[in-house]
Known about the structure:
28% of the residues lie in helices and 25% in strands. The chain is of the alpha+beta class. It has one domain (3-129): Cytidine Deaminase, domain 2 (3-Layer(aba) Sandwich). The longest helix is centred in the first third of the chain and has 13 residues, at 3-15. The radius of gyration is 13 Å and the shape is globular. The chain starts with a helix and ends with a strand.
Amino acid sequence: MTRPRRFIRIASRAALEADPRCPFRVGAAVARGKRLISTGACTIKTHPRNPKLRAKTTRTQACAEFVAIIRALKQLSSLKNCSIYVTRLRKGGLTLTLAKPCSVCQGYMREVGIRNILFTDQSGDIRRMST
């Protein structure tokens, strides 16, 4: 199994833990090389560093990417050279669909130094975002 496929599978497992009140079942995994650093799923719980709140959007949920990054920052002082893998599960099933991070999360990833962003597209294939 390729490294991206392995971490997408891990992010998919994290998506199963998403808060049922969230509109989407999104999961994320932060990795450095072959090593998994952290995972996260979208949640309704907020956090003072949530970029959605800083951007003053109406959404108060914490995206999966944000949750995974906050957990990774507890272990590492820098997320440079880290990759993030993001997946979204279709409603009522376990198939993957489009999970491209929103612009607010993309900005937060750049802020913390993550440049390698991989996500699933509409058909469940892995795409790399250019930053």
